[in-house]
Design goal:
Alpha-D-Glucose-1,6-Bisphosphate, Chain A, domain 3; 5 domains; 555 residues; magnesium ion binding; alpha/beta; single chain; A-D-PHexomutase_a/b/a-III; 17 helices; globular; phosphoprotein
């Protein structure tokens, strides 16, 4: 730990406006001065720089210091964002929402007061609500921008500050170069002590915004027009200690679907997320309680949102699985919803997916006479595709109603999955059988993922650099016929992504996670030989073989 870091920590503590984080930092400084190595490491990391403002805004652990999420950093970010909006147009406006994470409401109130004090019309949503409601509100209220205080499915210690733009951006998340422009203005704002920022009183939105979201989301189902109605499958639902339940229940009541059965231990917002290691439905064990309840209740479908309800997970009965349930992959759900959207599009519009998502959506689009677009990773890109009728990313993010929400929306996706499942249920079929039908029509597209979570962030660029310098010549018995660095202009400058194409048509893509300390590998394989179940087994086995071959490359 440098003396500069310790001096910066003392200065921060002296100026911190929050009694709690100031006391926490003073205790850490005292421990560091006494030689405590953990405290020394915390001071060094918390003051080694500023929490990076990127295309998802800010996201990090809640703690004192410029490289953490806290009231000072949130107010500095709000002042920088206010400066950006005031430079962009006269009389800008912003709507601000928050979820159930620790500190979210305080951060949202701080942001609103600083923005209002700077001369931006600031409107706070009336209570903690899902991220899709905030994304909807930007457009519904005609606002210049939006901020959602959330860290989505990150670990419990984290929180974040997610920025959307209205007007011509139609409520999408910010993209470059806007993120860099705002970051520069945050740096400038940070030169002034936050205690000296002018503050104003924000407006408080009425429940009308939430009711409008509920109505527009219910409208994407045909259940309120007599189809398919109350004869759907029995459903267990979990919001994973997040904010989804109230809105999901209201939407389903409006559509006429039977009520879902909530997982009681996870039904209410709790920022400690006591029943899961990580509040991410993709993580092993996250749906264990839902699966146990679904078995006890003889349910036929499990639906789960992540804590801010912008993602959706789906699990279906499977006698071969140890729990009796199998969670569908993001690509399986993505292709089901893509097929559902394509058959309704009547040859008009665009299907889109991030570049690491299954190529199967392109096959579905072609079969229905639709254009298919692959985007950079992240929903900020998927949502901006012109003519979009449906878009998804493999990380459980789906956009089924681009006319009202320009971001992934786990609640509207839940409505479409439930509508499709109910339609199939009435025909004596199921989502599992429909996946086999898609394999029969288009071939089996199977996907898998290998990821390595790191504690030393330097490992991530080291792994990527090694794979660039020494790409594999073969994987799982198949020659690597192309090794493409998608950061290079000749491959579109897509980002820090490596793509390996195998002789048998399989695809492997490697990238750092944009939100977590991970390196992620995406594996896709396909099969068109034999009956549908055989195709699925063959493609799934090939994915597993490639995954085993990839793991040693990440050491």
């Amino acid at each position: 730990m440098s003396t500069d870091a310790l001096a910066a920590a003392r200065a921060w503590a002296a100026a911190d406006i929050d009694d709690g984080t100031r006391a926490e930092l003073e205790a850490t400084i005292a421990a560091a001065e006494a030689g405590d190595e953990a405290a020394m490491a915390e001071v060094a990391d918390a003051f080694r720089g500023r929490l990076q403002f990127g295309t998802a805004g800010l996201r990090g652990a809640i703690a004192p210091g410029p490289n953490r999420m806290n009231r000072v950093v949130v107010q500095q970010a709000s002042a920088g964002l206010a400066a950006y909006l005031l430079e962009r147009r006269p009389h800008p406006s912003i709507v601000i929402g928050w979820d159930g994470r620790r500190g979210s409401e305080v951060f949202a109130r701080d942001a609103a007061e600083v923005l209002a004090g700077a001369g931006v019309r600031a409107v706070l949503l009336p209570r903690l609500l899902p991220t899709p409601v905030l994304a909807f509100a930007v457009r519904h209220l005609g606002m210049s921008a939006g901020v959602m205080v959330t860290a989505s499915h990150n670990p419990p210690a984290d929180n974040g500050f997610k920025v959307y733009l209205g007007d011509e951006d139609e409520g999408s998340q910010i993209v470059p170069p806007v993120d860099g422009e705002i970051a520069a203005l945050i740096e400038r704002a940070a030169a002034t002590p936050v205690a000296d920022y002018p503050r104003g009183e924000p407006e408080i939105a009425g429940d009308g915004v939430w009711h409008a979201y509920v109505e527009s989301t219910a409208a994407i189902s045909q259940a309120d027009q007599g189809l398919p109605g109350a004869t759907g499958p029995r459903v267990v639902y979990t919001p994973l200690h997040g904010v989804g339940l109230e809105t999901v229940e209201a939407v389903l009541e409006r559509t006429g679907f039977p009520p879902v059965i909530p997982v009681p231990e996870q039904a209410r917002p709790d920022g400690a997320f006591p029943t899961v290691d990580f509040p991410n439905p993709e993580e092993p064990g996250a749906l264990d309680l839902a699966m146990a309840l679904a078995t006890a209740e003889q349910a036929e479908l499990i639906l789960a949102n992540d804590p801010d309800a912008d993602r959706l997970a789906v699990a279906v009965p499977d006698d071969a699985a140890p729990t009796g349930w199998r969670m569908l992959s993001g690509n399986e759900v993505g292709l089901l919803l893509g097929w559902d959207a394509a058959r309704s599009a009547r040859g008009q519009g665009v299907l889109a997916a991030s570049i690491v998502s299954s190529p199967g959506l392109g096959t579905i689009a072609e079969a229905h006479g639709l254009e298919f677009v692959q985007t950079l990773t992240g929903f900020k890109w998927v949502s901006r595709v012109p003519g979009l009728v449906y878009g998804y990313e493999e990380a459980l993010g789906y956009l089924v109603n681009p006319g009202t929400v320009r971001d992934k929306d786990g609640i509207s996706a839940l409505v479409r999955v439930l509508t499709l499942a109910s339609e199939l249920y009435e025909r004596g079929s199921s989502l599992s059988e429909e996946l086999l039908a898609l394999a029969a029509e288009f071939g089996a597209f199977e996907s898998g993922q290998v990821s390595v979570r790191v504690t030393d962030l330097a490992r991530i660029p080291a792994i990527m650099a090694r794979l660039r310098a020494e790409p594999p010549a073969e994987l799982a018995g198949a020659a690597v016929t192309a090794a493409d660095d998608l950061a290079l202009p000749e491959h579109g400058s897509v980002g820090d992504i490596l793509r390996f194409t195998l002789a048998d048509g399989a695809r492997v893509m490697v990238r750092p996670s944009g939100t977590e300390p991970k390196v992620k590998v995406y594996i896709d394989a396909t099969s068109t030989e034999g009956p549908p179940a055989q195709r699925v087994r063959a493609a799934r086995a090939r994915v597993a073989e490639i995954a085993e071959a990839v793991r040693p490359l990440l050491d």
